[in-house]
Task: inverse folding
């Protein structure tokens, strides 16, 4: 088992980000903090570090490092390496944000027509 792991690699491995390059970009943009301090992608994580990741302007996810890993693991195994301590208020913000930014279509009615798509695009502009 590893003694230390880069923050970008760890965030990707515990499925906070879809790709490692997205994790690196978030670190460079100042969206990742360890114990309240912005970090670079090369920073090593330690056990019990509290990592805060700004996912979008309204939502921040908070996790605690429980173990090291270098390869991406199945979603079922993530709780062995990371403890999600995101407050319920933040999770509610994310749910509301996703509801506001997603079109709802009834199942089985197919893709939108060109006319419907234009209407959707107009609504999204507001």
Result:
């Amino acid at each position: 088992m590893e003694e230390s792991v880069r923050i970008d690699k760890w965030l990707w491995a515990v499925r906070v980000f879809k790709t490692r390059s997205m994790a690196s970009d978030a670190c460079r943009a100042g969206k990742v903090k360890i114990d309240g301090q912005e970090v670079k992608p090369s920073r090593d994580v330690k056990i019990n570090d509290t990592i805060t990741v700004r996912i979008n302007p309204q939502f921040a996810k908070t996790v605690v490092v429980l173990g090291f890993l270098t390869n991406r693991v199945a979603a079922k195994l993530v709780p062995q390496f990371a403890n999600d301590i995101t407050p319920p208020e933040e999770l509610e913000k994310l749910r509301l944000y996703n509801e506001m930014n997603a079109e709802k279509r009834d199942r089985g009615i197919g893709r939108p027509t060109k006319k419907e798509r234009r209407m959707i695009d107009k609504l999204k502009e507001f």
